[in-house]
Amino acid sequence: MKKGMIIVLNGVSSSGKSTLAKEITKLLPDFFTFSIDDYDLVIEKMEDRENQRLIPVETEYFYYKNVAMFSDRGVNLILDQILHDPLTLQNFYETLSSYPILLVGVHCTVEELKNREKSRGDRQIGQALSQLSFVHHQEIYDVEVNTYTHSMKECANAIVNRLESNLPLLGFKKSLKEFESSK
Q: Where is the active site (predicted)?
């Protein structure tokens, strides 16, 4: 069975990944969104966080294993997540190194990130800015979009056009080499 394609939307909180994922599914109805935030809700239900009864393995470990299982069964996914620390990167690269991946950098201006955090009301103010100190520093993307300077539809079209082009998808493999050389 052919492995399902994985579109990885990587960007800081409030950069527009979730909205962009929904827009992409309008253009690619055979793709399904799989958000790390939604997956964390599954883990949260299993744990008793109030009493510190926690699963002793990082959520991303299980998340990427599940991504691989879906892809192994031919399911195409859009990942809405943040590559945010060395352990997450290690889980990401080790688990998905043999999978077809379109690596997408999702960007937004600092001012707009601040505005989105305030208007949403469900985010810690300053969270996106703090994440900028480590997100997008060593990733090499197949395509990059800016959800402030372009509409979600334009961003989704750019991603779909890149996916459907004849150009090889090298972002993941180049990013993996960067990660390995930085260890």
A: 37
Per-residue pLDDT at 122 exceeds 80:
no
35 is in an annotated binding site: no
Q: Which residues pair with 31 in a beta bridge?
A: 76
**Residue type at position 73:** R
pTM for this structure?
0.92
Q: Which domains, and CATH codes, for the chain?
A: 6-182 (3.40.50.300)
Give the C-alpha separation, 39 to 46, whole Å: 11
151 annotated binding-site participant? no
Q: How confident is the model at residue 121 (pLDDT cuts 50, 70, 90)?
A: low
- The answer to whether 171 is annotated as binding is no
Give me the pLDDT at residue 135, please. Answer: 85
Residue of 37, 38, 48, 72 marked catalytic: 37
Cβ-proximal residues to 100 (8 Å cutoff; 6+ apart), any chain: 3, 4, 5, 6, 71, 169
Rounded Cα distance, 73 and 109, in Å: 38
Residue 80 is a catalytic residue? no
